[in-house]
Amino acid sequence: MQQKKLKKQFTDKQLFIIQDSLPTLDDGKYADGRMNSRTPLRACKMLTDWSKKTDSIVTFINHVNKDGKFAGTQQVKHMIDTHAHLSIEMNTKSASYGKRNFIVEKNRFGATSSQYVIEMTDKGLSLFVKKAENNNEDFVPNVGRGRRRLRVA
Q1: What are 86-105's pLDDT values in tens digits?
Q2: How many CB atoms lie within 10 A of CB 47?
């Protein structure tokens, strides 16, 4: 199999797949290539099973609806280990206006409701850090409902 060749060739590297648009995957169940509402579930299961068997990482990029909520069947969220959401802060009064909010909504192996504000710099994405007005302490701004500030040590 191809992943065995890659793992043998790059022994110090982690095999990593990014799959954009899960609903477009064809799991091969139907010879004529047709798909139905269960196709993304079967494709997700195939890739997550493969990931566990080969000790690899698979990242799915999915769509959201107009409200910014996960689009598609909720069963997909039950099949995966971590569900995260990346969005742009559109509130002009927010300290993080125009920055990216990265929220971990589900994490089978760690903390949930973790939220990070990231910004694009000339060196790539980095954690957005701001100085507190009252004590000049570095912190990541509170950008979510009920989320606390993350102090930067």
Answers
A1: 888 888 988 788 888 888 88
A2: 21
Amino acid 146: pLDDT: 41
Q: Which pair of structure tokens corresponds to residue 72?
A: 């598609």
Q: Does residue 50 contact residue 61 with C-beta atoms inside 8 Å?
A: no
**Distance of CA 4 to CAs 1, 24, 57, 65, Å?**
6, 26, 14, 38
φ, ψ (nearest 5 deg) of residue 146: 70, 10
Query: How far apart (Å, rounded) are the C-alpha atoms in residues 43 and 98?
Result: 34
Give the whole-angstrom CA distance, residue 69 versus residue 63. 9
Token pair 């957005």: residue: 128
Cβ pair 27, 39 in contact under 8 A: yes
Bridge partner residues of 120 (DSSP)? 125
- Strands 100-107, 82-88: pairing kind: antiparallel
